[in-house]
Amino acid sequence: MADGQGVTPEDMQKYLNLDADGDASILVDMISTAEDAVTGAIDDTIGIDVYRAYPLFNQAVRVLVDYMYYSRGALSDQNKAYPPSYAYMINSIRWKIQRDQDAKVGETDG
């Protein structure tokens, strides 16, 4: 995966260890949903390209897609809405991206 590109269906197929690309369209939808969920949990006014530059953002997307992919049809039976590692990543990204965005605002104000 190239820096700043974000998670791709091909990336997810490798991550999930899938042989065929029959689920590529499903993965595209899940990646989009996961990116929306992560940015919505942090700050949806920041552009997706900014988020995609953070490796931890891309890993959070992978973790959420993995969870959604293998939990299809069983989400109502789950005890947790998200994997614990996902929540950890969201908190880590939140503070890093907010600090970086505040620094950029400070550069333009000065």
TrEMBL record:
InterPro entries: Phage_HK97_gp6-like. It comes from the Bacteria. This is DNA packaging protein.
